[in-house]
Design brief:
This is Vanillin synthase /trans-feruloyl-CoA hydratase. The chain has two domains: 13-204, Alpha-Beta Complex (2-enoyl-CoA Hydratase, Chain A, domain 1); 208-254, Lyase 2-enoyl-coa Hydratase, Chain  A, domain 2. It is built from twelve helices and ten strands. It has helices at residues 37-53, 72-75, 80-98, 115-122, 138-141, 149-157, 159-168, 174-179, 192-204, 208-222, 226-241, 244-254, and strands spanning 6-8, 13-18, 21-26, 56-61, 104-108, 111-113, 125-129, 133-135, 171-173, 185-187. The longest helix is centred in the middle third of the chain and has 19 residues, at 80-98. The structure holds 3-methylmercaptopropionate-CoA (MMPA-CoA).
């Protein structure tokens, strides 16, 4: 399954794996990659498949936009309790991504809107190209976030900015998004996927235990009080440092066989 370039077509989310990185591409460009139930199901199975065979994930979108968010055509038909289950299902799928065994890198361009931003926020690193714009138009549509946005996007940018975005429906460009912590990188138009792949390939070479600790321990510790955080950190630290892989990597550095930390480019 790890063959370079091996592909497996899903209808609405394509899956390919190359050099240990699974690339999940939202593939519904005619509807601007709106997240229908079908898209969420395909995303779920792609995330599950990546757990077994990839060391990092890249999520990107086909066409001119990353994602227009919730499929508004499907939304209208739900009863209140169906709406609760729908939202909880998104939570489950996005949790699988955020609490994945391997890190996820979002490659963003064009609209990163509503549920599209919630999906991006469940990834660990976001790379936006200059065409990217972020928005939370839920207020103008008469609805609310339901894909974990009030928790994840709110923690990323802060509740005041998120409140403003939801009340006014304003769009935030890539640079502003970077300043607001909605993305960690801004690259020229058309280069987000390549940059995300480069970063994912780099992260894929880390010790799996370190990557697991980074993506699973950090958000949990962030939700804890200081004392609990320090306590949990000491255990995660001791567990990772005594793994055989850590010992080999530390020895490699001391024997001058490992790369030094590079100066910023
Ligand atoms: C859609 C959707 C959608 C496009 N659901 N069909 N999201 C929104 O409120 C964003 C709504 N979409 C837009 O504002 C624009 O489509 C875009 C700025 C993203 C892109 O504009 P553009 O000019 O490239 O495309 P378009 O012509 O508006 O859309 C092309 C087609 O996609 C068109 O369908 P067609 O049959 O007329 O060709 C659109 O109707 C369709 N389309 N976006 C369904 N979102 C778990 S809670 C999460 C809550 C939310 O995500 S709220 C945010 C919803």
């Amino acid at each position: 399954a790890q063959q370079s370039g091996a592909t497996m077509d899903r209808t609405l989310v394509t899956y390919e794996i190359a050099q240990d990185v699974a690339i999940l591409t939202l593939n519904r460009p005619e509807k601007r990659n709106a997240l229908s139930d079908h898209v969420i199901d395909d995303l779920e199975s792609g995330i599950a498949q990546a757990q077994g065979e990839a060391r990092a994930i890249v999520i990107c979108g086909n066409g001119d936009h990353f994602s227009a968010g919730l499929d508004l055509a499907e939304h209208a038909a739900r009863t209140p309790i169906e709406g609760v289950h729908h939202s909880r299902h998104w939570h489950g799928v996005f949790d699988k991504l955020e609490q994945s065994a391997v890190p996820a890198f979002a490659a963003l361009h064009g609209a990163v809107v509503g549920g599209g931003l919630e999906l991006a926020a469940a990834c660990h690193v976001r790379v936006a190209d200059e065409t990217t714009f972020f928005a939370l138009p839920e207020g103008t549509r008469g609805i609310f976030v339901g894909g974990g946005g009030s928790v994840r996007a709110g923690r990323l940018m802060g509740v005041a900015r998120m409140t403003d975005m939801m009340l006014t429906g304003r769009s935030v460009d890539a640079r502003q998004g970077e300043a607001w912590n909605l993305c960690q990188y801004v690259v020229p138009a058309g280069e987000a996927r390549a940059k995300a792949l480069e970063l994912a390939s780099k992260a894929a070479q880390n010790a799996p235990m370190s990557n697991y600790a980074i993506i699973n321990a950090l958000p949990r510790i962030n939700d804890m009080g200081r004392g609990d955080g320090f306590f949990v950190e000491s255990f995660v630290s001791a567990m990772t440092a005594t793994s055989p892989e850590a010992e080999a990597r530390l020895r490699a550095f001391l024997e001058k066989r490992a790369a030094k930390v590079a100066r910023p480019e």
